[in-house]
Design a protein that fits this description.
There is one protein chain. By secondary structure, the chain is of the alpha+beta class. The protein folds into two domains: about 15-170 and about 230-315, BirA Bifunctional Protein, domain 2; about 330-415, Anticodon-binding domain (Rossmann fold), CATH 3.40.50. The chain has helices at about 15-35, 45-55, 60-65, 85-90, 95, 140-155, 175-185, 195-200, 210-220, 230-245, 290-295, 310-315, 335-350, 365-375, 385-390, 410-415; strands at about 35-40, 45, 65-70, 75-80, 105-110, 125-135, 160-165, 250, 265-270, 280-285, 300-305, 330-335, 355-360, 380-385, 395-400, 405. It binds zinc ion (2 copies).
Amino acid sequence: MKYTSPRGTRDILPEESFVWRQTVNKIINILENYNFSEIQTPIFESADLFQRAVGDTTDIVEKEMYIFKDKGERMMALRPEGTASVVRAYLQNYTHFQKKKVTKLFYNGPMFRYERPQTGRYRQFHQIGVEAIGSSSPFLDAETMVMGTQIFQELGLKDVNIAIHSVGCDVCRPVIKEKIKSYVESILPNLCEDCVSRYERNPLRILDCKNPNCQTFFAGMPDMNSALCKECNDHFLGVINHLEESEIKYNVDSHLVRGLDYYTKTVFEIRSDLLGAQNAICGGGRYDNLIAELGGRKTPAFGFAIGIDRLYMVLNELGLTKEIQKQTKFLIIGLGVKGQEIAFKTVLILRKRSISAEMFYKDNSINDGLKEALLLKVQYAVIIGEDEIDAQSYTVKNLKEKKQFTVNSLEELISIDN
Ligand SMILES: [Zn+2]
Ligand SMILES: [Zn+2]
């Protein structure tokens, strides 16, 4: 093979694409019911935006960004996540958004991270994400997580669970960091290089380390909840209360920090056991400082993103994609020049009447036509041979029920099953 897709990327073939689009449409319907509206931002932005927003001690910025210099000598980056771009767009179009107290936006598109390729992880991957900007109410945290759960339930995933935690605010974060630091000090000689470098720069990030050896030393990490300030603690209890009111099952995971620096207070993940160790199909949380950090007024916000590649994997594994198939109704097989001409006119009329139809372009083999019909999984193969031309009729084969019958007009063909 002369050319293959770049390492860590893949082609999404028609069968998956079809399921994919149906799935995305279903998700978008739910988002719109919760009053989220779509925003589309560029696939690349100034690299600096992500360094600032995501944080320069995160895996994403330290190791995984696709950065390039454009012809104008500007450092650009393919977006590794969606929130920074949406916040940048929110601020850039502030006169458009500012009248509303709360702005709810969603995005849908490819993201890029230079990661080690592994099952369900790609260097170009697809996310649908939401950002609700303008309120610090714990109701907003809860309803957005309820929305996330509803999405997976409506897609047929019964086994998902929510892990939730609070990473604190400007006031209590330093206390949390100190707690982690003093614990990590005792295990530091056992940890990897990254952990050691993060110990000084951003101890909270140590919990993101994917090194299995490091992970074994994290088990004894102190519970961060006890270090939350009153405001963060009250907020966390509020969120949990509202989750209980919504009858959502959740568990508190005191090691959950998410791999981005902008989170404050609530962080959460929706997980599926089918994905193995890195089992999140949705993750997000509150980011009350990010908008101010990127130059706006201090504005609280909450968001999450769903990984569509991994979601598809889970749906597929559970057999939930089998029922979702594109189906063309008719394959019209015409014999000889005259048969082909009638076939051509027939498919055009069927399609104009919004009926899916395909023509078989070979004019000398009904058998080949029927084989094609089976491959295409059409409902009906329609044969126009010499006899049919003479009688101005169509022979119709119902491929599923293996029945054959004759219809005597185009109108009759159109009305099959209608
Ligand atoms: Zn706090
Ligand atoms: Zn480590």
